[in-house]
Specification:
This protein has an eight-stranded parallel beta sheet with strand order 1-2-3-4-5-6-7-8. The protein has 281 residues and is of the alpha/beta class. It has a single domain, classed as Metal-dependent hydrolases (TIM Barrel, Alpha-Beta Barrel), CATH 3.20.20. 43% of the residues lie in helices and 14% in strands.
Length: 281
Amino acid sequence: MSDPITRRRFLGSAALAGASAASVLAETPAGKRTIIDSHVHLRHGNAAHTEYSPEVIVRTMDQAGIDRSVVFAMSTTTKHSIEMAEAAVKRFPGRLIPYVYALPSYERPALLEMEAALSRGFRGIKIHAGECTLAEYVVDPVLRLAAERGVPCLIDFCGKHGDAQRIAGAFPTARVIVAHMGKYLCTDGGLIDQFLALAEKHENMLLDLSGVVLLPKVEEAVRRIGSHRLVWGTDGPDQKPDTASFARRELDKIERLNLSEADKTNILGRTISRLLKLQSA
């Protein structure tokens, strides 16, 4: 259920997200918290380019108690990335939400491919500094497109605070989600503080909590910028020890925090639901 592939470009679609999103949320029983995983890979950016089928992702969601997931593929061409997300959403239209994976370059910005995908139902854009330079001549057209279309841009800055600072200031109307609160599995509290201070200064910045190991920083983020600007994700699937246990462990991290139920509800689904316009809010 995991296979690998390759890397780099864009084109594709999925207009199924809107109506099905509303129906799933409408069917949620009163009093039940809607759980949305905002960071799920059809293909990872790891050395093995680990790939997971939509069937494995949805089975994991069912076992972990997750209602919906945002999905995208890395380490492949942009075109194939969109095709993978589109196929996954067609297979599970009420459960999966597609993001465009941006692999722009100076020679070929791929904007037409991205525009086509966004016009056909993709709800956001993903950029990873490990596969794409964040230089202004490459990523700025992508941020401009995100702002124009009103879709969020999930960016893994890989700890590059200076790039995040530039983008936050240059695109005040773009909704930028900082993956992993700045850096995956970061144990440097000072670096996370820099990204938190940046979010405090720029209201267009949100923080993604996947891969965060300094959990007191999550509670601090709630106090400083509010749970309405924090989104939960697993950065899964992950087979350590198995995909369902990994997802439940990431969910439990939030449930165990010293936060109000309202804050947990925001983090675990309401914030991303409002951002992606999955329900009126």
